[in-house]
Fold:
Amino acid sequence: MNLTILTYPDKRLKQVSKNVTVFDEKLHKLLDAMNNVMLASNGIGLAAIQVNFPLNILILNIPDSDGEQPPENLMEIINPVIMKKNGTTTYQEGCLSVPGFYEDVERFDTISISYQDRDGNTKILDADNLLSIAIQHEMDHLSGKLFIEKLSYARRKKFEKEYKRMLKEKNER
Ligand code: Y12
Ligand code: CO
Structure:
């Protein structure tokens, strides 16, 4: 399965994703293909809607201290629900669907989620630091939201101007 990452301002990114109900070979193939495209694009997180599958699926592979992303560090999170959230933190985020743009975004500091794995088993995960931020970023995708929608009016304006210029330059090449 070859997947293409949708990029802003593609309207399909605004779709609200639905829960996965069948945990079969087809789902496993999608998860494997998502992992391939995420790693090939130098990503650390990806939601299924970013490859045009409006399903409540996200994958993450947070680089270790050597910047490596070994397969055993891959996390597959299906039908996530935030159970607890605490504090606030700010991090400069980027997104494979908004290439070349990074901005500070405020999120909850720590979260606790329930989710299902690729076989439908329910799990609980307590997340902090980059993992917590990445899960919240990817869960926003499942609601059809991008991190740029959390920027202040002034920062969003600046982004639209820079992004438009970048797209124009890309099209002129
Ligand atoms: C903290 C904040 C946000 C996340 C969500 C996951 N984000 C990513 O994986 C972003 C990756 C990314 C990679 C890029 O590089 C290439 O496309 C080669 C990129 O593009 C450029 O910089 C040109 C943009 C974003 C997790 C944790
Ligand atoms: Co993203």
The mean pLDDT is 98. The first strand starts at residue 45 and ends at 47. The beta strands are 45-47, 57-60, 75-93, 103-116, 122-127. The pocket of cobalt (II) ion (ligand 2) is lined by residues 95, 97, 137, 141 (CB under 6 Å).
